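Q: Sequence in, structure out?
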Amino acid sequence: MRFVIQRVKHSSVTVDGEVVGSIGKGFLVLVGVSQTDTEEVADKVVDKMLKLRIFEDENGKTNLSLDDVDGELLMISQFTLYANCKKGNRPSFIEAGSPDEANRLYEYIVDRCRKSRPVVEKGIFGADMKVELVNDGPFTVILDSDTL
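A: Exactly. Output:
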């Protein structure tokens, strides 16, 4: 499982010209699910993400978590995080989870986050989404379950 986490001032996702999710200060999280991911893997990555201390404190040090700043979450499913570009110039996505299982785990992740955070917005799985954000920093962190 891979999460690309961007600390944002605000972010939104639009599908067919309609905003389907929007947040203020918090994390925009791109979520990639692999063939081998499970709920246990998701729990581990979600726990790590929720505890990340990447917001600045009063001294400008990155010591504060989402909880400390009442941060919000915008979760976007993105199978292209499992693009394999080793061979040729056209990416292969065979390592990405099957659509049914990836959607199930994505919804599991969103539900799990909603148990910890009051504002959790999401995109629409499999839709052509337009994502807008103001990256705060910029500050981007990648969590990969293979390295946690």
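The beta strands are 2-15, 18-23, 26-32, 55-56, 62-64, 72-77, 120-122, 129-144.
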